[in-house]
Write the structure tokens for this entry.
Amino acid sequence: MKSKAIFYHAGCPVCVAAEKQIALSLDPARYDVEVVHLGTDRARLAEAEKAGVKSVPALVTDGAVYHINFGADLAALR
Amino acid sequence: MKSKAIFYHAGCPVCVAAEKQIALSLDPARYDVEVVHLGTDRARLAEAEKAGVKSVPALVTDGAVYHINFGADLAALR
């Protein structure tokens, strides 16, 4: 069964680079990757925050959060 | 042709979690992943530093560095 992986970003250059390299490089046989743009989809800010996301870009999978480099603080997107 | 991806870590819990989740989740059809433990393999510190690694865990691929969460500063491993 595939795991769900959600990649949260905000469209910044740091986010886009990380998305291309990390999120889209995960093994498609094992991961269903969803990409969420928190800058345009603010309705999902609460969900990201609840998952433990502090800044973007971040990857959430199997209940763990991985902050990849630093693009923007989550608070800056509210 | 496969890309090379090097995952640098230092054996800390943050590193090990990121290794399992990120480094080992990359698509094996596209990436040859090498895992380097800088705590035991200090000879590779200079190489990591040259690639732009500031802290571990970090993933270097296609000339770009992705710092994933924060385990230890590279300076602490010297």
